[in-house]
Amino acid sequence: MDDPSFLPAWRLAALTRTGELGCRELLDHFAARVERLNPRINAVVARDLERARARAHALDRGSRQDAPPLFGVPMTVKESFDLKGLPTTWGHKERTRHRADADALAVQRLEAAGAVVFGKTNVPVSLADWQSYNPVYGTASNPWNAAHTPGGSSGGGAAATAAGFGGLECGSDIGGSIRVPAHFCGLFGHKPSWGIASPRGHSLVDAAAFTDISVIGPLARSAKDLRLAMDGIVGLDPAETGLGFTLPAPRTTNLSELRVAVWSHEPGQATDAETAGLLEDLARHLDSEGAQVSRSARPDLDPTEAYHLYLTLLDAAMSGRATEATLAKRRAQKAALRPDDQSADAVMLRAVDLPHRDWLKLHERRHQLRRVWSAFFRHWDVLLCPVLGCPALPHMQHGETWERTITIDGHSHAYNDLLFWPGITCGFHLPATVAPLGLSRTGLPIGVQIVGPFGADHTTIAVAHMLEQSWRAFVPPPGWS
Predict the structure, then answer these.
(1) Known catalytic residue at 78
(2) For a surface tag, which of 9, 154, 377, 386 has the fewest beta carbons within 10 Å of its beta carbon?
């Protein structure tokens, strides 16, 4: 048969379900690829092949009748998820001796859906960068161009999936950490509606509560894989409640019935001309397919206010991870801010030591704007916009993120000012699916962000599937066959 390395997970499961490939045989194929090719990009940083082979062997010996949807699919998970017996470091050197005593709930659920989890993938320190490097595991590189980052914080997982190291990846996202790596590596990725998938086992402190804005979700080589993985991980924590829920069906599965708003650029926010141009090309394609397309429809909100609200809530959400030394440093930086500084970094610094009463007012404003988004999505099924303002960044490891600058179309921008496109939607807990959009002139992937109303995860994934069929599917990076 053909090389299975780049087949989508649903196709791999079909092969193991029929017995055309054994589960152990498929696992050994991907394990051999990791052994041979991983040194080129340092994507997979921890493996437990003994456990995975025992699971694959058990699947081979069991019945294939009514086999689960991800039957025998070898996959990896982000290093930040607990995998029993392996360290969970989040890139912190002092955590290297840690060993998880149980699998994360998402791992348990994916394995219940048939998957074979065999390893963990590289991340930035504290999951707080679009560069995936740390003092524990070193640097992950992009298989499309090893001089560039695969993104972060689910960067190692995106690199591994794009390079054909497994059938699927589970990541997390609070500021683009699923969406940006999918965009940088030419993959499909899904950031779910907030609160619909329990993150138990994705925490350095065994937290029981959801972190505001943060979600867990899949990266894959097809939109159908996203749906299968989401069906596996959706659900609240059974340790807290037996309550369940069902996500609504897609609004439509036909391009000619689709109502699409296209937001290709925003004045004052860095977006390179190639990204905006590819989005306009896609809009013309959707026009030709009979979809109702608007290039001017927007939610009735001030984008700057919404963006700054997200940044403030983001900093508050991440403050629980901050050490006292980090907070002391940030307080000093806050005191030195110029009143007219409206950069992303300045807005976040002003949130340091935010009083709870002030947070409650911001939270109320967030829900007022969620209603604005809901009103917008009564007229439009999805919003298409950039994932980030540029393709994959070169490796940048000097200084803190707030000390870095990037150049887009000849203009210098603060590194963290790129948070606009990831943040304008996820600050309001909306689902967003990334699908391949095209390639830059330098051969790097560019993705499109497909945003829908809260709870409409199946709609955004369905639109990604439609684009996969009519516009662009996953293409393996050159030199990895």
Answers:
(1) yes
(2) 377
CA dist 369 and 371 (Å) reads: 5
Report the DSSP beta bridge partners of residue 407: 412
Concerning whether 177 is annotated as a catalytic residue, the answer is yes
Domain coordinates of the chain in residue numbers? 9-254, 303-362
State which amino acid sits at residue 267. P
Point out the catalytic residue in the list 5, 78, 126, 141: 78
CB contact at 8 A, 201 and 82: yes
- Set 153, 154, 203, 222: catalytic member: 153
From 177, 203, 214, 222, the catalytic residue:
177
The DSSP line for 36-53 is: HHGGGT--EEEE-HHHHH
3-state secondary structure of 93: helix
What CATH number belongs to 9-254?
3.90.1300.10
Taking the whole predicted model, whether its pTM rises above 0.85 is answered as yes
